[in-house]
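So, who can interpret the following?
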Amino acid sequence: MKSEHKNAIVADKIATVILYCIAGFFLLLLAGFTAYIIVKGIMAYQPGIFSFERTGIGVELFNTVYLVLISLIISVPIGVGAGIYMAEYAKAGKVTNYLRICIETLSSLPSIVIGLFGYLVFIYMTGSKYNLFAGALAVSILSLPLLTTVTEDAIRAVPSIYKEGSLAVGATHWQTIVQICLPVATPRIITGVILAAGRGFGEAAALLYTAGMSSNVNLNIWNPFDPMSLLCPFRPGDTLALHIWALKTESMTPNADQIANFSAAVLLVLIFAFSLGSRLLGARLDRKMSGK
């Protein structure tokens, strides 16, 4: 008996060491990739690369942030609302099971399929040209399953005593959701928003057929309804991810590799900064709601 117990302890320690080694290997691999991209980007820096001229990446950087913000404005309310419905209102049955299958299927679709769907619906059927808003709609479709699932899990994770206490003092079901469940679930929902935004920042295939591969703007025009304005969401616009792809595959610019390397580093830093800022915001909201 003692021998079996000792063998179990040894096996547990060996398994723990192996798992730590695997986790450490992948962390080192991730750190190596990150360092490689950052170092290559720093080495490729050139004066004026952040300009809004054709030789700079200012327009592409703005397009990236602008498109992701538009997509979050569209997808977050819909995704959070769908998650609330699935967690609090959907009754077990064939309809709910069908909705879950649809959500799972949508989350597994390749982004190129979403891009082709976006081209058919948002470009071809509407008679429009490539534009940032169509790209944002395509990215929103990619984000919806993630936001819905994360919100549902976050709402379900709220302790039942919170809901029971709210209902006991006379609050309605909707008031309980809005004033109790959502604030408690906010940190987890923010995690979903971060993941959705990260996918939007790095997305290229879905935008290839919706947002377009070029930008033509006039920095002297600030009317958001003018197709030449930087603020117009209905103009073609390539993001950093698309810009990197174009520079690496079809660009004839002599310093295309250097611009692509620097753009990749900027994109990585942008995603990291957004994730860190969202985490800090979520932690602050959590402390505020918990009274710490």
Notes: Residues 47 and 56 are 9 Å apart (CA to CA). The chain has ten helices and no strands.
